[in-house]
Structure formats: C-alpha cells, structure tokens
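Quick one: structure for this chain?
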Amino acid sequence: MTSPVIVWLRTDLRITDNPALHHAAATGAPVIPLYIHDVSSKGIRPPGAAQNWFLHHALEGLKTRLAKLGAPLIVASGQSADVLDRVLAQTGAKSVFWNRRYVPAETGIDRAIKQDLSGRGIEAKSYQAGLLHEPTRLLTGSGQPYRVFTPFWKALMRDEAPRGPMPAPRHLAAWSGKLDSEELAALGLLPKRPDWAGGLRQTWKPDEEGAADLLGEFLDVGLSGYADGRDYPGKAHVSHLSPYLRWGIVSPNQLWHAIRHADAHERDKEKFLQELGWREFCHHQLFHYPELPRKNFNPRFEAFEWIENSSHVYAWRKGQTGYPVVDAGMRELWRTGTMHNRVRMVVASFLVKHLLVHWRVGEAWFWDTLVDGDPASNPANWQWVAGSGADAAPYFRVFNPVLQGEKFDPDGTYVRRFVPEIAALPERYLHAPWQAPADVLRQCGVKLGETYPAPVVDHAHARKRALVAFSKLKEDG
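Got it. Here's what it folds into:
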C-alpha cells in the first residue's frame, strides 16, 4: 500500500489556493485531508459561539468538495499531537503537510509537532497561506516590529508582490485503507436550546461557493465607490468576506489579486487593499506581542480606572442604550453575526469612552458573537479604539453617536432596519429621539423609556468624564 500524505487542515478550509493541499496532490501519493478540532491544547482560545456555527458549515462545504475530488475529509477531536500520532500509526503515513498559523500558542504547537515528526523521520512541511507575508518578514530598520500602520503598509507595498493563487487540484488520490471519522454534529458547534442562529442562516453561505458569490457581487457592485462608500452602513460598499478570511475559505492572496485586476478606480482598489494590510498589521502585532488579547499594549493603561456597571453593559449588548446607531449596530451583530465597520468603531468607542467599561469586556462579547471573530484583529482593533493599542486612536477622540448617525446614515436606512420601533420618526429626530417634541413622538408611536429607551448616559457629560479620565492617564504617564 502506497504511503499517504496527511494534509492537516486548520484555518484553511478551502480547495483553491491551498498550498498544503496543492503540494500534497502534486506528490501523486494518496491524500488524507484531516481536520482536528483542538480546543484543549495549552493556550488555544476556543472559538466563540457564532464562529463555531460558521465553522460547522464551512467544514460541511469542505467535506463535500473533497469528496468530489476523491479524498474524504477525516474529522477528529482532541489534542493535535495525539490525534496526529494516532492517524500516523493507523495509516503508515510518512508525510504531514500543513499551512502555517500565526497565533503564538498555535505556532508553538506547530513548531513542537514539526520538531517531533522530523526527529522520527516523518516529513513535516508547512506553507504560507493565511497571510500575504510572514510576520517575521516586515520589520523596522532597527529590526523591531512595527507599532504604526502607515510605515508598516509602506514596507508591505515595497516588498515583493504577494504570490498568485494556486489552482484547485482536479483530483486527489484516495487512500484505500480504513480510517474512522467523527460526525460533524459530534463536535457540538451548533446551538441547540435555544437555537439562536436563524439570522445567521439567513445571512451566510459558509463555503467556497458562497465566498465566490460575495466576491463577484462586490467586484460588480461594491468596489466602485468603496473608498468613500465604505463608511455608510446603509450602502452596498461592503464585501462581507471577513468570516471567509477568518476560516480560510478564501485566501488573502485570492482577494489581493482579484482586487488588483478589477475594473475599478485605483483609489477604491487601494483602500480595499489597505484593509487587507490592516489585517496583516493586526497579525503582526499579535505575533510579536502574544499577550495582546489579555494585556494592554500600552502598559500605562494598566492604571486606568475602568467602571464596572453591569446594567450599562447589558444595555450595550442588547442594543438598548437609547442611541439609535449604537443600538442598530449591536442588534445587527446579534441577528447576523457581523456589524458594519464604521459602526463597530462607534459602538466600541461608546462602551470604552461613554461608559468607561474595559475594552476586554467588549472584545469578549465580539469574540462570542462575531462570525468573523479574528484572534488578531479583534483585540488589536478594540485596543486601537480604547487608546491602549498600537497606532491607537488619540484619547480625545470620542465619537458622538448622534453626529455619527446623522453623517453616515443620513436617511436612516440602517437604523430603521435594525431599530424598527423608532422607524416612523422623521430624519431630523431619528438619531436623537429624545429631542423630538412630545406630539411627534406620540404620532410616531414612540414612548421613551417604554417602547424605546432613553439614553443610558448623556453624551456631553460622558464625553467630559472620559476626557478627564484619559487625560489624567496621559499626565500620569
């Protein structure tokens, strides 16, 4: 029996532009695609509930595509090293291929496994697939990690262009032996009681076909005007591809080259590529600062006096703050597992600056409710908003949720979709219902404090309180 090649799949759940699968197929040997559901190895952060839902369906799609190519997906749960040892013993495989991960704990696991396999005479090959460049490749002139995005982006653009996507294999040689595989349902990734995923099912198709459809639609409709339109949540200038990047259903190289060759204005293409660059920058931070999800990048923030207010946190999570654009964003998140990027900044700023709640509280909620909860982007972006991160927003930048709503949702399309109880209000009052005269509220069926909450904090007071708190931190530093 010919010795097979194990392709260890993790956050690269695709057939096209999958270097490990591509090179395994090129050997001509039988291929065993293996997914190990490992949430117990030391340092692994288990995915949040919404990510788990997306992961389940991504694995379903991958399983179908691999079966059509001739090599069934093997699913197993447990610690990665133990499962690999078991499969190696059962199959007699002499080679294990995988695509690299960049979360520090996962990198440590992979390094130890590669060293162990190589020491036992088993070929262990890893490939670049999840980022455009290795995090160790781009460093400052003094050999240090970048702390500011702009010079990082310039260095990325000076470097050699990202490689082109690799084609999907047309066929995979199947291993003729017997190997048990767990049912996907046994992984327990889907919600049961209650089943809160109805909105996710209506929103997403978590497979390569779904990613291709979204990319095609974005290239046709969303990319033109993206540079400016991306800030308006009621418009179509959103790719919705971030969860597909999160689980490797589409690769950054695929997106990079699709945008580069698109028929669109260079300014729009450049802006989208910068967003890919920001994702790279977030992973650059996490790779070099492994404590990013847990500790302030700027240690001065360890002394900041955050406020613990469970009623404020509850109102924020449920979209009941009394500020319509904030509430619309939080309800979009709960219903669909995503949130428009501009609104993410507004709701994050509201939590950490209006309510003075620790950014880790928001980061944990996003991690659990976002289908695109990324281990690097999620903490890096929360720290950016809080002011404690790399290249952070200045402490005096406190988003006014009323002005943000009026500027970026001027006709109320977004707010009316997700906050229907105030949808009848005229535009001049839609983003600040408490300013509407009593007769207008009555005519529109709005009872503040009953059908829709009054603001949990006054903006002017909250802004002043935040500036005092953050400026004191600045002075102490």
